[in-house]
Amino acid sequence: MPASRSASAPAPIPNFLSRLSAARSNLGPSARLVADYILQKASTVVGMSITELADKTGVSEGTVINLCQQLGAKGFQQLKLSLAQELVQPVHFIHEDLEPSDDIETTCRKIFHSGAQALSDTLSVLDPVAMTEAVRLMTQAKRIEVYGIGSSAPVAEDANYRLLRIGLESKVVIDSHVQAISASRTGPDVAVLTISHSGATHETLTSTRLAHEAGARTIVITNFTRSPIFAHADVRLLTMARETLFRTEAMTSRIAQLCVVDALIAALALHDFSRASQTLQETFDVLSLKRF
Description:
This is Transcriptional regulator, RpiR family. Pfam families: HTH_6 (PF01418), SIS (PF01380). 57% of the residues lie in helices and 9% in strands. It is α/β, with parallel strands linked by helices. It folds into 2 domains: 79 residues, Arc Repressor Mutant, subunit A, CATH 1.10.10.10; 165 residues, Glucose-6-phosphate isomerase like protein, domain 1 (Rossmann fold, 3-Layer(aba) Sandwich), CATH 3.40.50.
């Protein structure tokens, strides 16, 4: 007996509208028309065919299909299933842009809410299988290198600090020239952790590519499923942070990146709990010399 349609239907994608909103700024003009229509009329799109949506937005059916694939959907049917799930169990968006007229109380509320939303959305897309693989690669490596440029540089420095605290051999490189040199001199016994919100920053993309070509195992933390840096990543850890006019990528994306790093460090520490605990105590004793 042939399998039923429901048995073979693709699973809905969690927080699909959040994914779409986060990806919007990186879309081409035609795909952005479709994205805006979906964001504004999600309930209508659920009942439409791909031809109807293409006609409504003035684009080709191929553009709609490409948008689905960019968002991780296998096709238009999975997009509609994902929308339907959110409409039945809606995710409450707290995605308010700051206005010049906002007072201090309103500004604080919007920033705190957007940070909380970024953490919730990131948790929904963070792949535990990918996290497990990242832990495996990093614990097997003789050395870990951490790369970040611009607003991702402080997150890279924090990751390096925490790796050292749990006893892993690590170094952070945030200068683009030194990054390229260091990456080219890695090898199969090195794991590289690259942090890049867009995944399209020329410097970190080049360094990650050089490390990958040198045989290093590469782990990337980024926000977009179609980031060009993914071509050079062995493991992909996704965040989901939506930036707006006044909230540059140094804000909500940084919060999401830091939480992914914290989860990764915790998983690494638990992998070898005795060693991590001992090293934490030893480094605590060393740092105690710095305190009055």
